[in-house]
Design goal:
The complex is a heterodimer of chains A (261) and B (299). Chain A is built from 11 helices and 10 strands. A 6-stranded mixed β-sheet of chain A has the order 6-7-8-3-9-10, sandwiched between helices. In chain A, strands 2-1-4-5 form a 4-stranded antiparallel β-sheet, with helices on one face. The longest helix of chain A has 20 residues. Chain A is globular, with a radius of gyration of 20 Å. Chain B has 12 helices and 2 strands, in the order ααααβααααβαααα. Chain B starts with a helix and ends with a helix. Chain B has a two-stranded antiparallel ribbon with strand order 1-2. Classes of the chains: A alpha/beta (261), B mainly alpha (299).
């Protein structure tokens, strides 16, 4: 089986600081892959490297065997990789509906000329209708249909997170990167989110890479987990293996001696 | 008190301002890029169109279009050089472009240098007003169509959140340069219209103060609103003209009006909302609903 995404010796340096050093892992198709580690371990930096917000210092990132080096962020999205953001980045002043509608834009291919001269042509009208239908189905799936006319910034925090996922799904991606999707959610909402992520993985035939601090969510959801600490690989394995791993416990809670001291 | 000749003249000037403001509204209001150099695009359109009708005896509409296209081509070059600059830096670059255009025109003797270009063919007021209205209607319809398409929505997305726009596959640079080019096209055509109304153009008409005036109109009307831009252009072109009898005080009143808007409605007159039949109906319904509630509270 070929890997959907593989990172090979990925390194990112900001001046003298190595944010991510020599990280390698592979994600298989259909997997939910967890990326965990203490604050400042470099998890979001890895997301930014995959989506070309930052450029690599060393190493290589492959998507279905093709290198992503030299691509612009929007080209990464064209390849089939989308993401959500740790500090929510919605189109704040627009409604929930418009947020998703905008993201559906790839389903249509009419040109600017068409908008002015062929607005009432069949082609234009059909494509626009397709965008609206897709938007409706996504909002319903994420349970946001009732709040579609609300301004994104006024939505409750949990719904804003869901709206970001809906917006990402609008691109019909193959790989979805979720950056702390459960941050700010209560335990009940978190469990609901877990179900939802599994459901969309099955329904859209997705591969998911997820960063999260809620250990319940990570352990209950992920097929495999990769642990980062100070930008370096610490451990990799199934949830059960990770929970047993002494180094991981140490990274999160400190050494046993320290705890007694 | 006011003759039709005078009023139709102001209406023509309003139409010319409105056309430029529409383009600028796309760039500033919908794409989120501030420009202080649109007088430069007007100047390019004005000089191109004037040269075409004077030297090559081209029909007016064709000359106007050509003025717009040349202005658009220049904007593509400028955009390629400056649109990678972030926010304020792009703004400064456009300011530089506007002033540079004026200074170049000041020194090109073919265009009459700083003395300007006289003897441009003019038209009878009513006829010209019809042309201006016709072009403006086309321009408004085209703009509304554009904004209510996926392309317009993508531009709004860039205004709202650039990084997220890229993450959902929007080619930010391409949309920014498209927006700039369309606004330059509008400004270029407007410049040509101005030249053939006044019959005389000189570089000093296209100073920084003209660019600023245009941006003020867009902000006054409300960013991200076409109707706001239309109302803004009408009010802020008429106001100084109507106040002409007060002579020295007119610019003070103009300034006061702008400041008043900034204090009472920082989002601009329309503030991102559009005025159309649907919006009016909703407003009336809410009003009526409110009145019923009030009466029930009394009884």
């Amino acid at each position: 089986m070929t890997a959907v995404l593989s990172l090979k010796n990925v390194t990112k340096k900001f001046g003298g600081l190595t944010a991510v050093g020599d990280v390698s892992f592979e994600i298989e198709k259909g997997e939910i892959f967890g990326l965990i580690g203490p604050n400042g371990a470099g998890k979001t930096t890895i997301f930014n490297l995959i989506t070309a917000v930052y450029s690599l210092t060393e190493g290589e990132i492959l998507f279905h065997g093709n290198s992503l080096i030299g691509k612009q962020p929007y080209q990464i999205a064209d390849c089939g990789i989308t993401r959500t953001f740790q500090n929510i980045r919605l189109f704040k002043k627009l409604s929930a509906y418009e947020n998703v509608l905008i993201a559906c834009h790839k389903l249509a291919n009419y040109k600017i000329i068409d908008t002015v001269f062929f607005r009432y042509g069949k082609n234009y009208q059909n494509q626009e209708r397709k965008l609206h239908e897709k938007t409706e189905s996504l909002l319903k799936l994420m349970g946001l249909w009732e709040v579609r006319d609300m301004t994104a910034a006024n939505l409750p925090y949990g719904m804003q997170r869901k709206l970001e996922i809906a917006r990402a799904l609008a691109l019909e991606p193959q790989l979805l990167l979720l950056d702390e999707p459960a941050a700010g959610m209560n335990p009940e909402e978190t469990i609901h989110l877990m179900e939802l992520i599994r459901q969309i993985r099955d329904e859209f035939d997705l591969t998911v890479l997820i960063i999260e601090h809620h250990m319940d969510l990570i352990m209950g959801l992920c097929d495999r987990i990769f642990v980062l600490n100070f930008g370096k690989a610490l451990a990799q394995g199934t949830p059960a293996e990770i929970q047993e791993d002494k180094r991981v416990v140490e990274a999160y809670l400190g050494k046993e001696d320290d705890a007694h001291a | 008190m006011f003759s039709w000749y005078y009023i139709s003249g102001i209406l023509i000037l309003t139409g010319i301002n409105l056309l430029t403001v529409l383009g600028l509204s796309l760039l500033t209001g919908f794409t989120g890029l501030f420009s202080f150099g649109h007088a430069g695009f007007m100047a390019i359109g004005a000089y191109t169109a004037a040269t075409m009708t004077m030297q090559f005896h081209m029909p007016l509409l064709l000359a106007l279009l050509l003025g717009g296209v040349v202005s658009m081509l220049v904007s593509l070059i400028i955009g390629r050089l400056t649109l990678n600059l972030k926010g304020d830096y792009f703004c400064i670059a456009t300011l530089g472009f506007g002033e540079a255009t004026r200074l170049i025109l000041d020194n090109v003797q073919y265009f009459g240098g700083s003395r300007g270009l006289p003897g441009i063919p003019t038209y009878e007021n009513n006829e010209y007003l019809a042309i201006v209205v016709f072009i403006n209607v086309l321009a408004i319809v085209a703009m509304v169509f554009l904004i209510r398409s996926r392309h317009g929505r993508n531009m709004v997305a860039i205004r709202e959140e650039e990084l997220a726009s890229q993450a959902i596959g929007i080619n930010v640079f391409r949309y920014k340069i498209t927006s700039l080019a369309i606004s330059a096209l509008y400004a270029g055509v407007a410049g040509g219209l101005m030249a053939h109304y006044l019959g005389y153009i000189q570089p000093i008409m296209f100073q920084l103060i003209k660019s600023t005036e245009l941006t003020i109109i867009v902000i006054f009307g409300g960013l991200g609103s076409i109707t706001g831009s239309v109302i803004g252009a009408i009010v802020l072109t008429f106001l100084p003209e109507v106040l002409r009898t007060f002579f020295q005080w007119r610019l003070v009143v103009y300034g006061a009006a702008v400041i008043l808007i900034m204090i009472t409605r920082p989002q601009g007159l329309m503030g991102g909302k559009e005025l159309n039949l649907k919006a009016i109906w909703r407003w009336v319904k809410r009003r009526r609903g409110g009145a019923e509630n009030d009466s029930s509270a009394i009884s």
